[in-house]
Amino acid sequence: MASRRHFLKGALAGGAALAGATLAPEACARDTHTRPAEGLGLLYDATLCIGCKACVAACKEANGNPPEFSTEDQLWDTPLDTSGYTFNIIKMYRNGTMQTKDAEVNGFSFMKTSCMHCADPSCVSACPVSAMVKDPITGIVSYDPAICVGCRYCVVACPFGIPKYQYDSPTGKIGKCELCRHRYADGHYSACAEVCPTGATLYGKTADLLAEAKRRIALAPGSRTSYPRGKIGGPDQSYEAPVGNYLQHVYGEHEYGGTQVLKLSAVNFQKVGMPDLPAKSSAATSETIQHSLYGGLVLPVVALGALSFIAKRNVKPDDDAAASDHKEEQS
Amino acid sequence: MSAHAHAVPAPVGGNLLNAVTLVCGVLIAIMAAILLTRFIFGLGSVTNINDGYSWGIWVVVDVMIGSALACGGFSVALLVYIFNKGQYHPLVRPALLASLFGYTLAGTGIFVDLGRWWNFWHIFWPSYSNPNSVMFEVAVCVTAYIVVMWIEFSPVFLEKLGMKDVRQKLNKLLFFFIALGVLLPMMHQSSLGTMLVVMGSQVNPLWQTPLQPVIYLLTAIVIGYGVVLFESCVAAASYRRSIEVQLLDPLAKIMLGVLALYLVVRLVDLTVRGAWGGAFEFSGIAVSFWIENLAFLAPFILIGSTQARRNPANLFLAGIAIMVGGVLLRLNGFLIGYGHHTGTGWSYFPSIYEIMVTTGFFAIEVLGYIIITRRFPVLPREDARATI
What we know:
The complex is a heterodimer of chains A (about 325) and B (about 400). Chain A has about 325 residues and is α+β, with helices and mostly antiparallel strands. Chain A is about 30% helix and about 15% strand. Chain B has a single domain, classed as Formate dehydrogenase/DMSO reductase fold, CATH 1.20.1630.
């Protein structure tokens, strides 16, 4: 009976250790991060975009990226999507006869694809080595190839499909928009916004851009208003134009806790390729689990203590030794 | 102490050069050539991975599935040393050996997939490592576990080399390494599931839940027992040894218990989250979901009764069913049900080179298992010697 009781005690303690390690309380709930107050970003207004792709060319040049070809004659840069060598492209939505710009039916619309600089980026949470980090002041999500191990967890984690890898190189890097942070020292800002002829891509502090976006969607469609170009708060390059038929939704205001790149569109955001995301970031969910289980290494240490205690009683020191001695006697 | 009057481990003996080891050698050579190409010309030169599916089978099969299939050692150690079921002791060494290889190769597997592999040590370097990252936790735990398993297994080599002093010292500390050897797999096998969480809606709701760590941990334990059933049958058949049915029958019963618990968790989770919709769509994803779960249900039919559990064929089939379910659960989450947003325009199917590298890794495992069981005391001693 003694051995049976011994087993039951062992089983109970083992079960308790298991339960402790797996069903930890959500004591370390991690809220979704919000945008830093001075965070920088872009406002992309699809109703102003004319699809000239000056921003695509400027981005290539500013980041020293090679052209990518999708036509047989390979005459000029024609990337079909962002890649390890293309950090910004203008995609197109088209429907039916494509007669009317910014119409969902028988119309077309443009949409910029580049890093959204999330308030709570999945790529930063996923990165095992802090090669992908978010600046606490500017909020720019930046990448350091000297640190990166090339695991590509950022590539699979991003809900926008933004970080991309250079598969054709033995020393491939991740490529993504870093808001041209390397050009700030010379007084420059994001190249895509600098060259945009219509102000469809506008650079500035996200707080200012959000106010501008809200001003636009509050206006009556068809009325005329002034549109700034280049950079909010920079030299006045504004011009007057008719107000688009905006959806009452500033994309990026709340998605995943908010993004620093904001978007306006007249065509449904999912139809132009922007995912429908909840206000809670997946990084918050993931890190809540991670911290509940491993915060301060409390649970693992307690579990290890319990398991060691149980194992010490259950491992017979002569278990294997006896076996080998037995063997030696025989041989 | 009657529980410890079990068969003593002894080398199986026999020739190391046979058809199986030769085939393994050829497969390993092919893998080496492909990997050389990969390191000279980049991942794109031999793989079909792309920005829509950046993790192919080198991650999902070699690492996620490879390590899950290597949970035998952990599952059996849990039973023997934590739940004090000493009668299963003869299963410990063979299971641990399979785990040792599975994990060592999973660790190597991740290395060949790293795009900037020369920086791999950054994961363990305090100023670089990111404790918020689930992958950081997995990498540290898997590495630690590989080291712990080599220590746990070292008595086998020390025995052979006759290093009695070292063995005795190690014996005194062995309980601690055994405890670590149970804890570490619990940590990283659950975290392998948590890795899906940050991918958010990229993953089909059928496989996207905050309960992921529980789901992956429970299935890892079940797969561990399933693999032991499978391997015991295969080892018995190929070495012409008798099958330890008196051990496998109760082991299978325990496995069914954990499996039942898992299925309840899975059922409740899908229902509470209202995620059943995807299971009734007309899609490959739904088919894959049902195969996965039917495979997990099959053992209840195959080995539900004591009589069925005494039939080696049923035990073998149940082991395979568990492995199929566990493999699909991981494939479904990371590949088949992945790519909700970036999926449009992207597709992935492994290239022949990717498949050959994965095959090569399994060949190393089989070859290593054969060499070590034939030359070192792993399998319980039997009077009949191997004839092949």
